[in-house]
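Friendly challenge for the regulars: who can give me the structure tokens for this chain first? No prize, just bragging rights.
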Amino acid sequence: MEEQEKVLIDSSLRGKTKEQLGLKPFICTEIRSSIVGIPVTISEEFIARAIRKEAEGSYEEGLKGMTNPRMRC
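First reply, four minutes later:
Bragging rights claimed.
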């Protein structure tokens, strides 16, 4: 996602690596935010430990034909 945003801003960056774009390399799934200017990172592993579950599973973007069972009419 971050790469796409950078390329939208400057199309000459298309095809560059995360490091070349000045982004942090992918290590694990994480939530990154900033609270009053302080960067905060919450990893999938941290959440799993907090709820005492294994950090497992995967995320697949753009699955077609999948519906949310709660949104059935």
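The CA atoms of residues 8 and 14 lie 9 Å apart. The chain has a mean pLDDT of 79. Your move, everyone else.
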